[in-house]
Amino acid sequence: MKTPDHETVLADAYAAVIAAQEVRAFHRKRTRPGEKHRTLDVQNALKRLKLAMTPIRSALGRAPYDEINKASRLRHAQLRRVSKSIQVERRKLWKLRGGKISRIGRPT
Fold first, then answer.
1. Number of C-beta neighbours around residue 39 at 10 A
2. How far apart are CA 78 and CA 9, in angstroms?
3. Taking the alpha carbons of 74, 75, 80, 83 in that order, is the dihedral positive or negative?
4. Which residues of the chain fall below pLDDT 50?
């Protein structure tokens, strides 16, 4: 399987982050926790973020083995920045998702 190029990975990741922000903005005040539409939208946004994170994680894992030059440092910094954005959105969506937390920390 061919790995996607750097620009495609970044574009997909930023699109997933923007979509997650739109889901949060839409459902923040308009719907109640536990509503079916809200739950499905949040699950889809989380899934999209997870799929966008996979090639980023792979690229960050390969970074120590790349040659060191200005371009590779720039790519690495861009990947770190988008990775942080994805993590922030995942946490915010997790909070928006609602639901009770059981004693062992898993949602019920």
1. 16
2. 11
3. positive
4. 102
Cα-Cα-Cα-Cα dihedral of 96, 94, 84, 50, to 10°?
-120
Distances in Å between the Cα of 65 and the Cα atoms of 19, 83, 105 are: 32, 19, 37
Domain parsing of the chain, residue ranges: 6-97
Interacting residues of 43 by C-beta distance below 8 A, sequence separation 6+: 97
How many angstroms separate the CA atoms of 97 and 34, rounded?
8
- SS3 state of residue 101: strand
The helix (run of H) or strand (run of E) holding residue 66 is none
pLDDT at site 99: 58
pTM of the complete model: 0.81
